[in-house]
Design goal:
- The complex is a heterodimer of chains A (336) and B (793).
- Chain A has 336 residues and is of the alpha+beta class.
- Chain A is built from twelve helices and ten strands.
- In chain A, the strands form two sheets. Chain A has a seven-stranded mixed β-sheet, with helices on both faces. Chain A has a three-stranded antiparallel β-sheet with strand order 2-4-3.
- Chain A folds into two domains: 83 residues, no CATH class; 227 residues, Bira Bifunctional Protein, Domain 2 (BirA Bifunctional Protein, domain 2, 2-Layer Sandwich), CATH 3.30.930.10.
- In chain A, helix 2 packs antiparallel against helix 4 and helix 3 runs antiparallel to helix 4.
- In chain A, a hairpin with a 2-residue loop joins strand 7 and strand 8.
- Chain B has 793 residues and is an alpha+beta fold.
- Chain B has six domains: 65 residues, Phenylalanyl-tRNA Synthetase, Chain B, domain 1; 110 residues, Nucleic acid-binding proteins (OB fold (Dihydrolipoamide Acetyltransferase, E2P)); 198 residues, 3-Layer(bba) Sandwich (Phenylalanyl-tRNA Synthetase, Chain B, domain 3), CATH 3.50.40; 69 residues, Phenylalanyl-tRNA Synthetase, Chain B, domain 1, CATH 3.30.56; 204 residues, BirA Bifunctional Protein, domain 2, CATH 3.30.930; 82 residues, 2-Layer Sandwich (Alpha-Beta Plaits), CATH 3.30.70.380.
- Chain B has 21 helices and 38 strands.
- In chain B, the strands form ten sheets. Chain B has a seven-stranded mixed β-sheet, sandwiched between helices.
- In chain B, helix 6 packs across helix 7, helix 7 packs antiparallel against helix 10 and helix 8 runs antiparallel to helix 9.
- Chain B is elongated, with a radius of gyration of 42 Å.
- Classes of the chains: A alpha+beta (336), B alpha+beta (793).
- Chains A and B meet through helix 5, strand 1, strand 3, strand 5 and strand 6 of A and strand 2, helix 8, helix 11, helix 13 and helix 14 of B.
- The structure holds zinc ion (ZN).
- The site of zinc ion has 8 residues of chain A, from loops.
Amino acid sequence: MDISGLREKIESEISRIANADDVKQVKVSILGRKGIFAEYLDKLKTLDKDKRRDAGKAINDIKTWADQRVGELEKQFEEIERRKRQAASRIDITMPGAAPLFGRKHPITLTLEEIIRIFSSLGFSVAEGPDIETEHYNFEALNIPSDHPARDMQDTFYINPGIVLRTHTSPVQIRTMEAQLPPVKIIAPGSVYRCDNDISHTPMFHQVEGLMVDKNVRFSDLKGILTIFIHEMFGPGTPLRFRPSYFPFTEPSAEVDIGCVICGGSGCRVCKDTGWLEILGSGMVHPQVFRNVGYDQEEITGFAFGMGVERIAMIKFGIDDIRQFYYNDVRFLSQF
Amino acid sequence: MKVPVEWLNEFVVIDVDIEDLAKRLTMRGLEVEGIERITPRFTGVVAAAITKIEPHPNADNLSLCSVNTGKEELTVVCGAPNVSVNAKVPLATVGAELGGGFTVGKRPVRGIESYGMLCSEKELGISDDHTGIFILPDEIAPGTLLAQSPIAHDDVLDISVPPNRGDCLSIYGIAREVASTLHQKAKLPVFTLTAGADEKVEDHAGLTIQDLAACPRYILKLIKGISIRQSPFWMRRRLTRCGMRPINNIVDVTNYVMLELGQPLHAFDFERLAESRIDVRVAGERSTFRTLDSIDRPVEPGDILICDGSGPVAIAGIMGGENSEITASTTNMALESAYFNPFSIRATARRLGIRSEASLRFEKGIDIDNVGYAADRAMFLMHELAGGAVFSGQREIFERKEPRTIYITYSNINGLLGTHISHEAVTRALRSIDLHVMKEDENGFTISIPNFRHDIGETSDVIEEISRIHGFEHIPDTSPVTVLKAQKLTIKDRSLNTVREYCLGTGFFEIINFSFFSTRDIELFRIPDDDERSRCVPIMNPISRDWGVMRTMMMPAVLKSMAYNINRGAKNLRFFEKGKVFFQDGPRNIREETLLCFALTGKEKEYSWKEKYTDYDYFDMKGIVEGLIERLGANCEFSPATEPFLDQGCSADVIIDGVRAGWTGSIRDDILKAYEIEQTIYCAELRFDIILQKGNLTLQYKPIPRFPQATRDFSFFVDDSVPIAELVKKIKDISPLIVSVGIFDMFRKEMRSVSIRVVFQSYEETLTDERVNSLQEKIIGEMTNIDGISLRA
Ligand SMILES: [Zn+2]
């Protein structure tokens, strides 16, 4: 058997490969079932044992060589083909992406959620009360009798004599204490209403009330809790101060100011040149309030606080007109 | 309360700068809201003494004044009538600037050279008085630069006095607090009131009080021969800086002493008091009374009236009468200094709508022990300013009360505050504000409460005083010592969180509207009278008619929000609002309910280079509603809309377990037009409380099937009389192996053609073709048995 021409035959087949299709054809013509090697291997069967071994080895060597050679060419032409395909489907990666639909929470909700998150982490539970309140819960039970000068401080919407739109979330204090014994540790978020409508007032706004009542709750605890709150809400370095104030349902009462975020304390229009922004009101629960709900004011003490959500949101987000919260302008809402 | 520091200085030595003082007061609870810096508007004005006055040779109404500035003698032409030799006057020298760009020059006036000008108060910008040249106070020496004298300078503190601190509504009251912070004692003005007249008040005037609870103290004093004129500059300046308008010397003194000491006073023309007597009465019946502003005021039983022999001459503490007021010709005057019941004054003032400086102070409670001193102070000043002779003695009725005392322990104080304030520091703090220890033991002490502190009634009031004097900044920040309890989160809160997450994920913008709307909204929405949404809760004193009642629906406000945005060019909107609605269930019975409201308009996006977006339709909104209710663990069905404001063709009621839980669909275009909207809006209003009752947030895992699914597609002609939801339900009911029935195509030629994909799944075995084929046959059989359904070949 003459195998001297085999290598040349194979080489001439491979040399005509010019593209990926040729690779496939050549693979069939030399390595396929009816290919050149198959033909030679058939002939091998006719040789005697000794010759068959030598010739077989020689054919196998050529086949290994041919496999490798065709494999290389195959990879080479596949890469060329891939490049061609990619070139055909090229995109401009700087074209805008397809934006997914995604909603926004109202900034009041964002602020409320943050306030609730902080007080929840301190063990306060959320309580609720009705928006339409009795004068009793809104005023009398909070130590604000009808001839009390503090009623001057609030302009109340009346539903009928004796029924009002709550002017603060403080009635929830009373409702909660009437419904359960100490210890009490709640916050009460909600809408409140006052007859005001100008650049710094809306007739409806939001407050969060807080109340903690137990044995031995101290004014220093109020300071501790509210300091944690403010540092969480406005950042750990925020300067703050507690300043004596007056609320009929707390005593002592404290207004809490933070260093003005606009001017950094040097004085500006927003802080009326004081360097401070009023952020919340607070104090130790007035003994009369405890008497009103039937708690023993000799045995227990507590603190309460209240804050305006819009005010906090305005300071946090730099909003200068409270009415923005209620226009529901998408150009406003989409910023949060 | 406006407090000129120059005045305050008379009561207490202010040895700190003004910012420091303001900070101290603020940290005491008397918030200084602002400091008005009064500075001169002029330069080059000196005090000069008039040495000679000659008539102007060329003008009758002008004179030539020779003035001495201490350095030189100058001639100035002057037209004012009130100059006199030796008077000290402000001379604006050549080159002086008087504000507003006006510079004084050397110029001839009717042929005579004037070396500057003499100025009125108005020309110097220190008051509105332009009646004559400003005659300077005697203590100012010629040559003094007026821009540097106290006349042109002051700092006025604007203090926000808390409503319970009526004792701080005076310069003296503020001085008491200032003195306490500066470790001083406030000093009262020292003066000697001498009776110049031979007459005694007791011989010439009578006084009775009908009800000592209404008026526990009343003092009547008399002065004769006074002349009514303008008050001197110093008094007018102080009144003006405190925000009061000077009137005449007598009225000004009553206001001045009120500002100084906190005691409101009233002056009567004594000659006009019938029978020369004052009777303090409590009105028993209705009447009217003409006050000095010529308005007839209704008097109600309970009002305190000051009467003379013939009837009322003043409504106590509120306003005097026209019949007894001081006039330019008054010569003999009666002065009232009294204490009236605060509640009574408040009730009367409130009813009459008069909130004067006097009634404000009476309402908050004045110092009953100071009534006499204030009367003397006023008589002294009136005599100084208006001349005349003061009668000796006075008429007085005074129902004295026992001073109040409070016992308090040190553990009360430090226990409530969380402090360790020493016994000594406690009593020192209280002493500094005139709360004096009367008795002491090792645990605590008894203090007396001065009568000017109406706000102190129990121990917590005293602790408050200690805390603010000790300083809040010296109270530590501590952590409460309390039992640890996990905070409770209600189902409602958890569900609301789910709702908010869902809305965020589905691309809704959350909006918030006011809880009020208008009955017009109910009419526009065609809500019938017998619908609960017509029973809205009205507001007695609404801001406007648009916000006249509490809302019973949220959609009207949502439409307004959409209109607002559409008008500003935003035509593609997805809004969500959670809020309360309010129903008047009975005369005294109001119900509050939480609603979830959704609205879509336009399309998902205006344009995209990649895809084409179509306008929102009913199914976009329906999908949102279905998805939300499913997320909250409930199942809903949709039945034909019953709402009068919806398009019947493409709207539905949302039913959960047979209960109507809301509606979805498109609002009638005539209603939209009324809200100025011209594009279709798809929306939904869901009753959150009902979804909560029906829903379930518990999550439970179901094993994932180990065997493959089989799928078969069907196409039917379905008559419009058969709702697709019914068809889907019927297929599902055929076998538990049917796990999903979906619509993948629908078109309409002569008939409606619907293509349905059914998925079969067993948890026990791999379904054989034979098994699935037999189910397929069953589906075809059962469906084509229904009237109006046939198989599409
Ligand atoms: Zn600032």
